[in-house]
Amino acid sequence: MGPADDKPHEECGVFGAYDPAGNDVAPAIYYGLFALQHRGQESCGIAVGDTLGPRRILLHKDMGLVSEVFNEERLQKLGGNIGVGHVRYSTAGDSSPQNAQPLVLNYIKGTLCIAHNGNLVNAVELRRELELSGSIFQTSADTEVIAYHIARERLNAKSAEEAVASAMQKISGAYSLIVMSPRKLIGVRDPMGFRPLCIGKRDSTYFLASESCALDAVGAEFVRDVAPGEIVTITETGIFSEFPREKATTAHCIFEYIYFARPDSIIDGIGVYESRVRAGRELARQHPVEADLVVGVPESGNDAALGFSLESGIPYGKAFVKNNYVGRTFIKPTQLERESSVRIKLNALKKVVCGKRIVMIDDSIVRGTTCAQIVSLLREAGATEVHVRISSPPFKHPCYFGTDIPTGGQLIANRHNEQEICTLIGADSLGYLSVKSLSEIIQGRLSCCDACFSGKYPVARPKH
């Protein structure tokens, strides 16, 4: 995450594994989730089954980081050759243990386990419909709505994947799913491909993961991305694919490339690191400035800062030291401590900054408070000028597809123009990446959702 809490958060990461040879998969899922920890630090969980033994699901989940929730003893109790894991940061549904995933349902056809990344835009209507027919919900998350619809469709379907295909006809919005039935692992991506999902293989074990970096963490070979609208079914005989819905115009989340994904991931054929360097280059072309040093706000601004330096010819350097031991539980009980939270997480290198004109690169400005404090750090360290460059356009609109971008009133760019924001954060100049140049950072190879910047939503916004 960024140096403070004033950043958009991705709400989930999913990881699944199936070894037809019968080896336990929980340790691999643990390491996969560890690699996806950046996608959610609120809660996590692992559920496993045994395709060669009794039809039962072993589950452990709780609030906390992967390293806090699991230890060697707990992993040893999760014996099974098929499983799914999840890391969560809530965007839809409360922050509570009940909403931790994976979700496990016991119903007339057996058991169903599901992990979900994304948000539905028709979740409220679907939930109400289910409640009126007698369904009782244990969570406030969209995932339970999806699970109920799959379970209902399974009553008349010939297979779990057929039930998933039928449920896809009813749900709308962003969803990358891993569904575990007693004998199958199923990966699903919504027709627009909002959220990433990919397939990997190591020896006899197949994997499904939100990002390719998680496959690297378990020594798996990247096979391919799950395509938008595709259902991938993994059984003991191999991988099967189907597209139950008509292909739609895709709307990949552009912010995966700007901020969410790990730099070492490759999503839909595009390297995340390279896309951020291109964003920095484009920033330098759009907003040139005379300066002595280009620096990134760690960690997310560093790659774009390198790109800005390469394009502008201004030297790239390190201006901040980050305290990596300040976790998600960092307590800020008073206003004074809230204001000093950035200083606890970041410190400026005075001998690097003093007497220099600085170009400071970050990936976004949400409320503006954090950016103002970081600019202040540079000035106190002796910077003569601070020019802020942002490797995304101004946030002006909320996201309904699995990102916790606040409502319009909380977004500084929704209430102020660029010159006003520049004054509020205390910078000498401010430049954002233009909306129309977003396609440049992904080389024009994907059709992406940029609604949080442009206000042009690829599907109708939720009524509630």
Keywords for this entry:
single chain, 464 residues, alpha+beta, Glutamine Phosphoribosylpyrophosphate, subunit 1, domain 1, Rossmann fold, 2 domains, 7-stranded antiparallel sheet, 6-stranded antiparallel sheet, 18 helices, 29% helix, Amidophosphoribosyltransferase, 4 iron, 4 sulfur cluster binding, amidophosphoribosyltransferase activity
What does this protein look like?
GO terms for molecular function: 4 iron, 4 sulfur cluster binding; amidophosphoribosyltransferase activity; magnesium ion binding. Pathway: Purine metabolism; IMP biosynthesis via de novo pathway; N(1)-(5-phospho-D-ribosyl)glycinamide from 5-phospho-alpha-D-ribose 1-diphosphate: step 1/2. With 464 residues, the protein is α+β, with helices and mostly antiparallel strands. It folds into two domains: 12-250, 4-Layer Sandwich (Glutamine Phosphoribosylpyrophosphate, subunit 1, domain 1); 272-445, Rossmann fold (3-Layer(aba) Sandwich). Helices cover 29% and strands 23% of the residues. It contains 18 helices and 23 strands. The chain has a seven-stranded antiparallel sheet with strand order 3-2-4-1-10-9-11. Strand 20, helix 14 (369-380) and strand 21 (385-390) form a beta-alpha-beta unit. Helix 5 (142-154) packs across helix 6 (160-168) and helix 9 crosses helix 10 (302-312). The two termini are 29 Å apart. The model is unreliable at 328-333 (pLDDT under 50).
